[in-house]
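Exercise 7b. Backbone tokens:
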């Protein structure tokens, strides 16, 4: 099945800013997160699709290539663009490299760099807000220890390629033209391994599982990436290693919802506390604090606890905790409690000043129907 347009996946326009792109991704990621949609294969697939789209569009270089060439531009097997480790020079190198010696593998420019890797790190909200050091294990192609990445059996070395005499290129005649192309025997290295290493079979790389310590800075959020330079795959033939990009995902929290540097939560209070006022214990990421609720507080009222939010990783000050009051209707009442409420209701109904919003609403309804009759 053909891939959907990345902008369509995230529900944004093609000229979306970096900030709005991140907000759109965070909103979708929170909605489709596997922790919120257990056993929902469709939601999991959409979550992965959103991750892939954000990974490309949040990278300026990849986004530029995607805007010009679409999905083909990011396919290393396609001639339309480049793979994860290339640049715009590769677009032309594929076409003209064999003629002028400037393409990938053309000439003796040194071993190629290894591929970049991505690791998705899921963190609890507290860990993301406070920062931490996290150990991760990743499968990776690492340099062979037996041959130090050369691919040659210990005690031996690669020999000069006899086909190209170490140049990495050979000249072939095609009709009236004499063309220079990458040597098919040594693939541009200029050397061949006659006695390969037993451990890596001459590849110079072996599969390993590597344990790394990732320092997560305080305030990271969904979609943030941490780069570990040189911790990607080792390059072939002893080439330099790529980078490892650790992409942050924050798990849904049972109490708090994050919006940038601010936190939101709902605080249920009893009918009596809302009417009479009182003092409530409210949880924060730093511990409990007292929240004074004035008398006659209505449901939906928001109280701001300053400095109880998040310090963002890129600065900007500490956010606030916004507590939305929800008046809870009592349940499982005894007959005595029901009778007390009936008496209270009769007392309240006798004077409309106790429910000013209710009176204005009913007056509006009455006026509406009167207008319909006239």
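Sequence design result:
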């Amino acid at each position: 099945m053909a891939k959907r347009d990345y902008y369509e996946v995230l529900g944004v326009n093609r000229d979306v800013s970096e900030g709005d792109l991140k907000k759109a991704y965070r909103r979708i990621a929170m909605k489709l997160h596997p922790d919120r949609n257990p056993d929902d294969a469709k939601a999991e697939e959409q979550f992965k699709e959103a991750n892939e789209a954000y990974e490309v569009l949040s990278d300026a270089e990849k986004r530029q290539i995607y805007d010009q060439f679409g999905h083909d531009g990011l396919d290393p097997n396609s001639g339309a663009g480049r793979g994860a480790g290339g640049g715009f020079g590769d677009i032309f190198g594929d076409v003209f490299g064999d003629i002028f010696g400037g393409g990938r593998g053309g000439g003796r420019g040194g071993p190629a760099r290894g591929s970049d890797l991505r690791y998705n790190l899921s963190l609890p909200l507290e860990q993301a807000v406070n920062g931490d050091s996290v150990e991760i294990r990743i499968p990776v192609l690492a340099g062979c220890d037996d041959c130090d990445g050369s691919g040659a059996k210990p005690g031996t070395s690669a020999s000069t390629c006899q086909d190209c005499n170490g140049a990495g290129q050979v000249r072939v005649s095609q009709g009236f033209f004499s063309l220079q192309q990458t040597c098919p025997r040594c693939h541009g290295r200029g050397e061949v391994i006659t006695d390969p290493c037993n451990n890596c079979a001459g590849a110079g790389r072996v599969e390993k599982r590597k344990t790394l310590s990732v320092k997560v800075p305080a305030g990271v959020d969904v979609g943030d990436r941490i780069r570990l330079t040189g911790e990607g795959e080792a390059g072939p033939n002893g080439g330099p290693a790529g980078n490892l990009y650790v992409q942050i995902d924050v798990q849904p929290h049972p109490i708090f919802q994050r919006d940038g540097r601010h936190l939101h939560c709902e605080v249920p209070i009893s009918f009596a506390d809302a009417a009479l006022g009182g003092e409530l214990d409210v949880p924060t990421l730093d511990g409990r604090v007292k929240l004074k609720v004035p008398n006659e507080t209505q449901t939906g009222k928001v109280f701001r606890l300053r400095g109880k939010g998040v310090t963002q990783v890129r600065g900007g000050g500490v956010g606030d905790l916004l507590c939305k009051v929800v008046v809870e209707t009592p349940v499982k009442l005894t007959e005595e409690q029901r009778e007390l409420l009936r008496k209270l209701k009769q007392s309240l109904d006798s004077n409309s000043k106790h429910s000013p919003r209710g009176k204005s609403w009913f007056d509006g309804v009455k006026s509406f129907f009167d207008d319909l009759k006239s």
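Instructor comment: The first strand starts at residue 117 and ends at 123. The mean pLDDT is 81.
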